[in-house]
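pasting for the record
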Amino acid sequence: MPALTRDEAQTRARFLDVQRYTIDLDLTTGDETFDSTTVIRFTARTHGDTFVELKPVTLRALTLDGKPLDPGALDDNRYPLTLAEGPHELRVDATMRYSRTGEGMHRFTDPTDGETYIYTQLFLEDVQRVFAAFDQPDLKAVFELTVTAPDHWTVLANGITTRQADGRWQTAPTPLISTYLVAVAAGPWHSIRTEHAGLPFGIHCRRSLAPHLDADADEILDVTRQCFDRYHEKFEEPYPFDSYDQAFVPEFNAGAMENPGLVIFRDDFVYRSAVTVTERQTRAMVISHEMAHMWFGDLVTLKWWDDIWLNESFAEYMGYQTVNEATTRYPDTWIEFGVVRKAWGYDADQRPSTHPVAPDADAVPDIASAMLNFDGISYAKGASALRQLVAWMGEKDFLAGINAHFARHKFGNATLADFIDNLASVTDRDVHGWAETWLRTAGVDTLTPAYDPATGTLAVQRTGSRPHRVTAGLYDRELADGSRLVLRDRIELDVPQEAPAHIPGPRPALIVLNDGDHTYAKVRLDEHSEEPAFRNLSGIPDALTRAVVWNSLRDMVRDGELAPAAYLETARAHLPEEKDLAIVQGVLGFAATHIADRYVLPEARPDALDLLTDLTRDLIRRTEDGTDPGLRLTAVRHRIDTAQRPGTLQGWLDEGAVPGGPDLDPELRWRILTRLAVLGATDEDAIAAELDRDPSATGQEGAARCRAALPAPEAKAAAWERMFASDTLSNYLFTATAKGFWQPEQAELVREYVPRFYPDAIALADRRGPAIAEAAGRFAFPAHAVDAENLRLGEETLATGTMIPALRRQLADQLDDLRRALRVREA
């Protein structure tokens, strides 16, 4: 399927003015396919040739201005059109295929009750899997849909839907939106409806999750209303659509999708097991993020995919900031951003595949290359850059520039140049210069404090080229034993500096650059500060400051400047005293998945796991009084994952609870069973019994993960067959199987599959497309095999193999992480 190029899109945008799509979908024609009829009304500005995209099972008929066209002229996914100047009407009648990969029109049958649900995900180039379209973001149009569905279904769409007398559902016409934002979700939804600010609001999930959505409905709707009101305080343009529905759908590939009027979320956000407050905070942030897209992306849309940051970076920044401002039930969202989300950006920005936040248009020549930029740079780094921009120019001017942008481009398309011009129109700051240094360059700067005791001055040494406005935190020891630090002062610094800053009084015990985490840079400690940082980390009074220091230690490990064992010992010393759950989760996550699984030598891994087991035991003991259930749940999860012997876990499973709590809900039971499978302490009969106990979709995934984790040759062979030889697994079941397959404890057992991965992944990606290709590259890659042979095989594959871009990018990133792990081990 040829990918649309930027040049083709620009040519077509100059040639066509598209006014309206009238789409009729019939979802009652079978389990494999549905019928799609599309009428497109548009104008050709001159005589010329163009094409419309669609990818049907069968193209039954086309007419242009009432005259039939030859269906056989379809060339792959493009139908050629020769047009006279003036208005036209194109009618396309086709049969389309449902998807099991989360692309196009995804169909899912719930194993709990047998009910079926469908939803669309039309991002980038998947519109053509559902209806014929001139599929590019700058050919906006009005969309009006009619949907035929089974009698007991409800149909949701971008606008208000109404059931007609003939049983069909009619949607209200949309304002001007891009093709990729059209959305339909149909099925026997469990729905909770309300009204806010004069608009209908709704939340929806499949029926089997109804009790869990009901339990959280007040929280979800409160967050929705609070963020909605806060955005209307920030933005002068009102919410531009006629309703606000949020559908939690099964097997969704992303966290959520910002379809106007119908935001679609993965239904993992309908919690059926216990979760921590930080996980609830993440759900709130995603709600806020997608709502920000109603303005950033839906009201004003990029012209081409090189400006994806205009969508994602803004929604990411606004998502975190607005939850912080509008809600009171969650901790400071920027702590979780700094410890977890920002690390995603730092890691991506140090790989060979890094790119600027706003790449040049030539770097995004087609749709396939655009897909590769939905990464930690476009999200986390872009949001960090915007946070630095707000610190530099002030929030008042920042919001004034945003509102000018909305006013000038509403229901249209805009570019980076448009946005920067709008910001520049409200400030005397050199916004164009800022954009050039921050948005057009790749890589991470490093900032290190340099204190001169002779003059009592502080300078900042910078590796890199960006200007930074940072806060330096100055800390002194408070207690006689030096176990706690107290803030003396915070000073604002512009980097590069005109002159060192004078620090009154004696030398601080600890100097922390980027205190408050308002810029995007790796931070190092000066030599004098290292000892108090390692000794007093849990005694630093502010959680965001502790997050900055933990990030510094993480970077030092990855860069080979700090031994992995030293990081583990620091975690062992300070996490039992840590009060912020996001920090505990972030540090434990890095310690387990990076250090224990990849960075320490195989012979040192048991000691690393023992240390983490001891640490989690301490955290469990600390929470015996029931005062911190989130911390206790986090500790129990990691205690399960680091177990090297089955006794304790089997006891918990038999009792159905951890002594002192919590009771084992489905998530914990499957987690324990997965670890027992890895350790060879369970079997197929136990997995089948657990699946009888929990036959849900999540249970099916748990069983797939456990079966793939069993340490038997026949189990591994069967799992490999399901992943790479059969195309029956859905996107979620593929991922679950892949997560179970590779285990560091089973390196010898799966050694023969390491060289098989590369050719099998290429063949799989060619057959099943980008979504499965990305899942294969991310989850089925043999990341545990930290050795020169795996690296050689991967590099040889990249150099000589032909593969789709989604898989190539995943392999390039995985191999860079593999090189880094080898360097850390050597260091």
